[in-house]
């Protein structure tokens, strides 16, 4: 077996890392959905932020917290902000005491994490299968004779 077969370590480890990272994200989203408080808010506008090399549009949402105080801030989310027109009602998930106390209630984050888990599983399982098939074809004939 040549040294080039060791290159399958790259998709194997990348798949394991992707599965682990996206799995933690899916678990976090699942826990968030079951423990967070649900609120109703109204979109009051949009604001652009430069999170990466391009501007990202976020919806500015106004809501009344559980303590009766009215809040308004830009809420990041997976939903395209252009689809949320001003005055539209949105659902929010509130987690008091966290760094981001309010996020948009959207199943997209959980769905994206599950897709990432499956992509990671396909990467590492495919790399493992390729190596096992290659090893099986290199075995001497007397090892697999029935």
UniProtKB/TrEMBL annotation:
- Residues crossing the lipid bilayer are 113-136
Going by the UniProt record, its keywords in alphabetical order are:
Membrane, Transmembrane, Transmembrane helix
From the Swiss-Prot or TrEMBL record, give the protein name: DUF3592 domain-containing protein
């Amino acid at each position: 077996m040549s040294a080039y077969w060791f290159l399958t370590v790259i998709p194997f480890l990348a798949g394991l890392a992707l599965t682990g990272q996206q799995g933690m994200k899916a678990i976090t989203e699942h826990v968030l959905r079951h423990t967070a408080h649900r609120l109703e808010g109204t979109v009051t506008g949009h604001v652009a932020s430069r999170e990466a090399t391009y501007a990202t549009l976020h919806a500015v949402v106004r809501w009344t917290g559980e303590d009766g105080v009215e809040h308004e801030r830009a809420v990041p989310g997976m939903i395209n902000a252009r689809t949320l027109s001003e005055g539209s009602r949105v659902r929010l998930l509130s987690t008091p005491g966290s760094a981001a106390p309010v996020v948009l209630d959207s199943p997209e984050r959980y769905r994206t994490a599950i897709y990432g888990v499956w992509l990671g599983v396909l990467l590492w399982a495919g790399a493992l299968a390729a190596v096992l098939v290659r090893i099986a074809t290199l075995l001497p004939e007397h090892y697999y004779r029935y």
